Amino acid sequence: MNTPATDHEELQDVEAVAAEADQEQPPEQSPEQSPEQDAPKQQLDLRVTVDKMSACERHITAVIPRADIDRYFEAEYKELAPKAEVPGFRPGKAPLRLVISRFKEHVGEQVKGKLLMDSLAQISEEQKFAAISEPDLKLEAVVMPDEGDLTFEFNLEVRPEFDMPEWKGLTIEQPQREITEQDVEAHLHRILSRSGKLVDHPGPADDGDHVTLNLTFSRDDTVLSKIEGRTVPVKQKLSFRDAQLESFGELIRGAAQGDHRATTLKISEEVDNEQLKGQEVQVDLEVVKVQKLQLPKLTPTFLNEIGGFSGEADLRNAVREELERQEAYRRQQVVRQQITTQLTAGAAWALPPALLRKQTRRELQRVVLELRSAGFSEDVIQAHANVLHRRSLDYTETALKEHFILERIADEQKFDAEPDDYDREIALIAEQSGQSARRIRARLEKSGELDSLRNQIVERKVIELITSHALVKEVPYVPPVDDVAAIDDAVSGLVEREEIPAAQHGDEPKPIPGTPTSHA
Question: Which of 151, 231, 450, 498 has the most beta carbons within 10 angstroms of its beta carbon?
Answer without folding.
Answer: 450
